[in-house]
Design brief:
Chain lengths: 301, 218
């Protein structure tokens, strides 16, 4: 056991020494791996952020019902009554046109524009919390639309649903992209290890003649692949971190102009950790494939 | 014990290096395999340590049929041997010490014990003062002695040497002969493939003569 640990420790130091001996080649290799990983990672981070945004802003299923501008107060009452009696309605809130205008003034900062309108262009409205889930909201909307003096009915959750669908599509794209680039990572390590085996032919040949087993010879290459993947993964994480940091810097000043604040969230520690493990595993896999293929030719026929 | 029974070796391309060779080498024996180049001396050694597999017949080493072993079992057979090659096959990017360390490292020796053994082997071949040197800075004779140190550091029971004196002048060659004999004297089986008559005359070993792939009786 102790011996086994020492052999592995030795392989690791040998690998790090190999990396250090050819700093430029190692840096380029790590660079290629990190860029291959950073691409899907950026998409992933953006998606995760969008998803968070959607979740934070997704309201409980609500329907906004707007009355016609020429609706009288009696019409409004009648509709209020019908809504209160409706079996699928949980809660309603009346928003008068004056209140809506005041809200708009307060929220958007478009005071001047609104003042120049001369008259209030907004209708009276109801915000309705439905008892049903999102699927039946559409039925309710269609029903409310047929009522007299109802101008427009809007499902507030529609945009969230659309965003959700878009994110699901985005996820698929990220998955495909990640798959392709994972393949690229395996290919890069495969080739790197193949070249290493070619340059170390003499050493491998002698070691085999002296009685080295294939696992013994393979081990430093596997470590090299794993270290390459791990370094690439950490580098990719760093690249994305720097990218987001720069973006947040600009985004901060942009959103401030709109009186809001939003910043991209960085990759969570568990995500960063699984990225590194994933990258190291892929590097190891590429090295294993390469070593197994290229070391077989040293065996006797 | 090494025994060959009706061993033939045909290389891809049809060249027949050995034809129905039968021989026995007992433990502790010193044997010289002589013959012209192309007589099959190297092939004979390669069959013993499973670098090549025979086309026909059996090669038994310590009771194991080495010609029929799985590839994964071959390394463990090779650890019984100390090998010296025609070209010394030293690793030129490693120091003298690291070259000799390699076999112990492969076997997985405890490192402090291993360092002691490496120094003992270097002492034996007279290279103790040069353990930090790179092989290129050594003379031909010293390189060959380094190859011996690497071959015997793990205390193999059989030492195989393929043309050990090929690139050495007479003085170095006799020195090397003495070294080989000293291993024979401590009980190691020594098998030398050589066409160097002087070396054979000096060591007075049992001779096995090969001629175009067949064992000939002198």
């Amino acid at each position: 056991m102790k011996n086994w640990l020492r052999q592995h420790g030795r392989s690791l130091t040998l690998t790090l020494a190999r990396l250090a001996r050819t700093p430029l080649a190692s840096a380029l290799n790590i660079g290629v791996v990190s860029i291959a990983l950073a691409l899907p990672l950026v998409f992933y981070v953006i998606l995760t952020n969008l998803q968070g945004l959607a979740r934070d802003n997704a309201p409980t299923p609500q329907i906004s019902l707007f009355l016609a501008l020429d609706a009288l107060e009696s019409d409004t009452r009648a509709i209020e009554g019908r809504l209160k009696k409706h079996a699928a309605v949980a809660k309603i809130r009346f928003v008068s046109r004056d209140q809506a205008l005041a809200d708009l003034k307060a929220k958007s900062g478009l005071t001047d524009v609104i003042a120049s309108l001369g008259r209030n262009p907004l209708p009276d409205g109801f915000v309705i919390d439905a008892k049903e889930n999102a699927a039946t909201l559409e039925k309710l909307r269609d029903e409310f639309k047929t009522w007299p003096k109802v101008e427009h009915v809007q499902l507030d959750s529609a945009w969230a649903q659309r965003l959700d669908a878009t994110i699901r599509l985005g996820r698929l794209i990220v998955l495909v992209l990640a798959g392709l680039l994972a393949f690229a990572l395996v290919a890069v390590t495969f080739n790197t290890i193949r070249l290493q085996i070619l340059t170390q032919r003499a050493e491998i040949e002698v070691a085999k003649l002296i009685g080295a087993t294939n696992p013994y010879i393979r081990r430093p290459f596997l470590y090299y692949g794993a270290v390459l993947g791990l370094a690439g993964g950490m580098m990719a994480w760093l690249l994305v971190w720097i990218g987001l940091w720069l973006l947040n810097d600009r985004l901060g000043s942009l959103t401030q102009l709109y009186g809001a604040s939003y910043a991209f969230r960085h990759l969570s520690p568990p995500d960063a950790a699984s990225l590194c493990v994933f990258a190291a595993t892929l590097g190891w896999l590429g090295a294993w494939l390469s070593a197994s293929r290229n070391l077989a030719e040293f065996d006797p026929e | 014990m090494i025994s060959f029974s009706q061993v033939s070796k045909r290389y891809p391309g049809g060249y027949e290096a050995l034809k129905s060779v039968a021989l026995v080498i007992n433990p502790g024996e010193m044997v010289c395999i002589t013959g012209h180049s192309g007589a099959g001396k190297s092939t004979l050694l390669k069959l013993m340590c499973a670098i090549e597999r025979p086309t026909a017949g059996n090669v038994l080493v310590n009771g194991q049929n080495v010609g029929a072993l799985r590839a994964s079992a071959i390394p463990f057979v090779r650890r019984n041997f100390g090998l010296m090659f025609q070209d010394s096959k030293l690793l030129y990017d490693r120091t003298v010490f690291q070259n000799v360390m390699l076999p112990l490292d492969i076997i997985g020796y405890d490192s402090s014990d291993a360092a002691k053994r490496v120094r003992a082997a270097l002492d034996k071949v007279g290279l103790l003062g040069k353990e930090k040197a790179l092989p290129v800075t050594l003379s031909g004779g010293e390189q060959q002695r380094l190859a011996i140190a690497r071959a015997i550091v793990h205390r193999p029971s059989i030492l195989l040497a393929d043309e050990p004196t090929a690139n050495l002048d007479a003085a170095y060659a006799s020195e090397l002969g003495d070294l080989l004999r000293s291993f024979h004297q401590v009980g190691v089986t020594v098998v030398i493939a050589t066409h160097d008559e002087q070396l054979a005359a000096r060591l007075q070993p049992r001779r096995i003569a090969l001629d175009r792939g067949r064992v000939v009786v002198p």
